[in-house]
Amino acid sequence: MTFCRNKVTVFVLLLFINLTSFSQNNTALTSPTSQAGLTLRGKAVDEKTNIPIDFATVSLVKANETQAVAATQTDIDGNFSFKNIKAKGSYKVIINFIGYNAFSKTISLNNSMNLGILKLKQSASSVLNEVVVTGTKDVIQLGIDRKVFNADQSLATQGGTATDLLATIPSVQVDLDGNISLRGTNNVKVMIDGKPSTFGGGDVTAILQSLPANAIEKVELITNPSAKYDPEGQSGIINIVLKRSKNAGMNGNVNLSAGKYESYNAGIGLNFRNEKWNLSGNYNYREGDRRGSGFNSTQFLNNSNNPFTSSTQIRNRFDSNHTIKFGSEYFFTPKTSLGLSSNLNLRKEKNHDSVNQLFFGNNNEILDRGPGFNRESEDNKGYDINLDFYHKFKTDGEELSSNISFGNRRADQYENIVQEFFDANNTPSADRFGMNRINDIDQKSKNWNFQLDYTRPFSKTSKLELGYRSTMRYNDENQISDTLVLNTNIYERDKTLSNLFELEDIVHAVYSNYQNQLTDNFGVQVGLRAEQAYLNTDISGLDNNNVMQRSSGRLDYLRVYPSIYLTQKLKGDNQLQLSYSRRVNRPRGWQVNPFPDVSDRYHIRIGNPNLKPEDIHAYEFSYAKFWKLVTFTSSIYFRQVNDVVQSIRKENPDQNGGTISEFYNIARSRSAGLELISRANITKSWNITGNINLFRSYFKGDESLGINDNDGFNWNGSLNSTLSITKALAAQANFFYMAPRTTSQGKMREMMSLDAGLKYDIFGRKASLGFNMQDILNSRKFGMYTNNQNFIQEFERRRAGRMFNFSLNYRFGKTDLNSSQKRSKKGDERPGIGGDEEMGF
C-alpha cells in the first residue's frame, strides 16, 4: 500500500509542479479587492466561411512588448473576453489557431470596447502545418461537453495504427488485444467523424488496427455525452476525427515505415480540389508479426483430486492488411454539397499458439501434462459505402446534414486445435483424453446507418438541434467442427459444436438538444433522446439424431435518455460545469452467443442470449482554468450502473481441473472519482501534459452466482513530454501506469509502459524522418486475479518485448490555387464530407 501511495504522490507532484510557478505571473488583470476595470470582447471567425473558430488561443500584449499580460480561449461560438483590465493604453490582440495565419490587431484601449468580428485567414500551407510540431499549437482544447487532443504531435506512434495512438491519449487505456478503455472502464463507444463506422462490419478493433495513426487529426473524449450522441458506452464516447484537406489544387503524401518483428507500412494519398469538386484516394499496406506469451494458474478450493493447474502459452500472430479509400464531393453551391466515399479492406491473418498445461496433486506433484497448439488462419474482406449531404441555410448557423452508410464484412476462419495428455511416466494419460479438432467458421456481417441532423439558431446565444438515427446490424456465424477419431484416423462431424448463430441488432432514435447562453457567463444545454432497441438471436444445429434444434433470444425495449449541462464562467478565466446523462451498454456479439468457445477446453467461454442492457446514470462536475502557460481541467464524477454485465468464472463440472467463463447481469456497480488533466509550457520548446484518474469502485454481489460484494480504490495516470530540440528536430516520451483495478470477482493486475519517439524535418519541412520505440521498459502486460468460493485463479499475458520503428513521410503538390481559381468570397462553408486527404472510415 505504501508503494501505491508513493506512485500517486509522484504523479500529483509532476502534474501540478508548474501550476504554482506560472500562476503567480497571471494575476495582473484581476484582483478580488480592487476596483472593476475595463472589458475587451471580440469574436474569431473564418475569413471565408464566417464559421466561428472555437478554442483558439487569444493573447493580450502591451504595445512594444512581447510578454502577454493575459491569455484566454474562444468559446464554442468563437467569442472571447478580457475583464477587469486596470491599465489603459495601447495593446495588441493576438489570435493563434492551427491551420490559420496568426492574427494581430493593435488597439487603443481607453474604455471598455467590443472588437466585433475578427476574421482569421487559413494558412496557405495548412496541410504541412498539420504535421509539424509547433510551440503555439494547443495539445488540449476544451469544449462544452468534450476534451480535444490534437493527434499530430504524437511522435511515439509514427508508422503505427489508431490503436497505438489511442494508447497515448490521457484517460484512455488499450490492452494487448486492442480493446479500448476510458477512465478504467472498457464499455466505451468509439466513433469515426461523429458517427458509428460501418466499415468492416463495424468491428471496432479491426477498424482501429487497420487505420494509420497519421490519418488522424484529433481525438475527442466525450465523457458525459449530450442527447445528440448515441448513449451507448458506460464511460462515454471516443470520437476519432480524420484529417481533411481544405486546400485547392493537387496535393498528396507518401509514408513508409519498417520495424522490429517484420513490421512494415507503406501508403500513398492524393487529393484534388477546385471550386466544384473534391476528389481523394488513399492506399495503405501494413504487415507485422505480433508476438506474446502468457500463463494461467488455478487453485481449486473444493477439488481434492486436482487442486492445482497451470498453463503457459506462446503466441505468434502475423497479419497483412490492404486498405483502399476513395472519396468524391460535389459542391452545388458554396453552401450545399453531396459526398460519396468508400473503403475497402483486405486482411489475412495467420496465428500459431503453443500451450503446455500441467495438473498437480495435493503434494504439488505433476499428475498430467498437456502440450498442444492452435493453428489458425483467417481471410477477412470488408467494405463500406457512405453518402453524405450537407446544406447551410441563409440564417447564420442553420444547417442540415444527412448520412446513409452501408458496410459489409466476411471472414473465413480455419482452426486446428491439437492437445495431448501424458502422465508422470510420460505415457498417455488415463484420466484425460487428447484432442485434435478442426473448426471452419464463416462470419458475415452487414451494417446500415441512417442519420439526419438539423440545427436551428434562435439568436446568437441560443439554438435547437434535432435529429434521427437508425442503425441496423446483422451478423451470421456458421461453425462446422470436426474431431479426429483415433482408431479410424478420420475426422468426423461433431454436431455438439457445429451450429449457426444469427444476430440482429437494431436501434431507432430521435433526439432534441437545446442550448442557451442565458447571461454572459452562464449557459445551459438540455437534451432528450428516445430509442427503440431490438436484440434478436437465433442458434440452430443438428443433434446426434440429425434433428434440427433451434433456440432464440429476444430483447425489445424503449428508453428515454435525458442530458443536462450547466456552465458557469468565473473571473480570471475559470470555468465550472455540472452535467448529467443517462446511458446504456447493450450486450454484443460473443457476449450473447451461447455456443461455447472451446479453443482451450479447460478454460471455456460462453455467451448468454438473455443478457439485459446495462442502465447507466452519469454525473460530472468539472472545473477548468487557463493561464498563459498552463491549461488545467479537473472533473469529479459519479456513475451508477444497473444490471452490470460481468464475465463470471466458475468451475467446470465436466472437466476435471477446468473453468467456464459466462456472462451474467449482476445487481449494480458504483464508481466515484477525480480526474485531473494539465498541460504546461515549461519553455517555448518544451511542454508536458499529464493526467491522473483516482476512483473507487463498488460491486453489489449476487448470492445465486456465488459473488460477494467487492469494492476498492483504483487509479491510473499518464505523462507526455514533447521537446523541440531544434527547428527541425523534436522528441517525445509517453509514460502510462494503471494500478491494480477492482472487478466483481477480484482485481486486474497493474500495467505500465514507456514509449518515445524522434522526428526530424527535411527538405524544408516537406518531409520528415521518424524513429520510435514502444514498451522501452519491457513492462507492458495484462493480467487478472480472481477469487471466489470455488477457486483462486491468476492469468497474465504480455507482448514479446520492446518494439522499434523507422518512418519516412513526404508531402508534395500544390496547397493553393492562384487568385483567379479560388472560390467566391463566401468560400466553402465546411470541410469536405467525402474528400479527405486521408479518407474517412
UniProtKB/TrEMBL annotation:
Classification via Pfam families: CarbopepD_reg_2 (PF13715), OMP_b-brl_3 (PF14905), Plug (PF07715)
Q: What is its main location?
A: membrane
- State a GO cellular component annotated for this protein: cell outer membrane
Which part of the chain is the TonB-dependent receptor plug domain? 146-236
Where does the signal sequence lie? 1-23
Q: Does this entry carry the keyword Ion transport?
A: no
Q: Where in the cell is it found?
A: Cell outer membrane
Q: What positions does the domain Outer membrane protein beta-barrel occupy? A: 391-810
Q: What InterPro entries does the record point to?
A: Beta-barrel_TonB_sf, CarboxyPept-like_regulatory, OMP_b-brl_3, Plug_dom, Plug_dom_sf, TonB-dep_rcpt-like
- Its topology with respect to the membrane? Multi-pass membrane protein
State the superkingdom: Bacteria
Entry-linked Gene3D superfamilies? Carboxypeptidase-like, regulatory domain (2.60.40.1120), TonB-dependent receptor, beta-barrel domain (2.40.170.20), TonB-dependent receptor, plug domain (2.170.130.10)
Q: Where is this region: Disordered?
A: 817-841
Q: Alphabetically list the UniProt keywords.
A: Cell outer membrane, Membrane, Receptor, Signal, Transmembrane, Transmembrane beta strand, Transport
The record's similarity note reads: Belongs to the TonB-dependent receptor family.
Return the protein name. Answer: TonB-dependent receptor plug
